[in-house]
Design goal:
The protein is α+β, with helices and mostly antiparallel strands and 184 residues long. It has one domain (2-179): 3-Layer(aba) Sandwich (Aminopeptidase). Helices cover 30% and strands 34% of the residues. The protein contains five helices and eight strands. An eight-stranded mixed sheet has the order 1-2-3-4-5-6-8-7, with helices on both faces. Helix 3 (103-118) crosses helix 4 (133-142). It is globular and about 45 Å long. The model has no long low-confidence stretch (mean pLDDT 89).
Length: 184
């Protein structure tokens, strides 16, 4: 388990699936903004998208829980882990009732600690819609740098929207980690 000041990242359990499916997957507008794929109905109980998976060298799926009471807050992941180039992408999605409370910034920080300090990665990257102020705020608060805009890359609810790409290097993380001890 990985720890932040107020959150923990733990392995996904079967008990998480129903809540995640209902509050993240079945939220069609939210899914359209975060997934990068078209929403399609997915019956509960038929290997939903949040079903726990075997760990692989290419990705790490986490459930985000509040440390003090274990409340399920959402999901976090490192995906596209490339061992040769020592890079990965990160993402997260919080349940609607838990957004806007600073948990996203903590999750990004813990994922950075995991990627750089545990996995020994050199680079982390995230992509988000250009109007996703919460994710952009979390990324910049943790030290990510805006690297570019992908114009009209994502089809979201009937219109094309710009994506932005942020990157963070291990050397930049090391400087920040010396100034602020990383989560444990």
């Amino acid at each position: 388990m990985l720890h932040g000041p107020r959150i923990d990242l733990r392995a996904r359990s079967q008990d998480d699936v129903e809540i995640l499916h209902t509050e993240l997957y079945d939220d069609v507008p939210g899914h359209a903004r975060s997934s990068g794929t078209a929403w399609r109905p997915h019956p509960h109980g038929l290997a939903p998208p949040y079903t726990p998976r075997e760990p692989t060298e290419h990705g790490a799926d986490f459930t985000v829980v509040r440390r003090d009471d274990g409340e399920l807050l959402g999901i976090a992941l490192l995906w596209g882990i490339d061992a040769h180039n020592r890079s990965a992408h990160l993402g997260l999605s919080l349940r609607p009732g838990h957004r806007g409370r600073g948990y996203g910034t903590e999750v990004v920080g813990v994922l950075c600690h995991y990627g750089f300090s545990v996995l020994g990665l050199h680079r982390l990257q995230l992509e988000t819609l250009a109007d996703n102020a919460a994710m952009i705020g979390a990324a910049t608060a943790c030290g990510f740098t805006l690297e570019g805009t992908l114009r009209e890359r994502s089809w979201v609810s009937g219109q094309f929207m710009d994506d932005v790409v942020y990157g963070f290097l291990a050397a930049e993380w090391a400087v920040r980690a010396k100034a602020t001890p990383p989560p444990t």
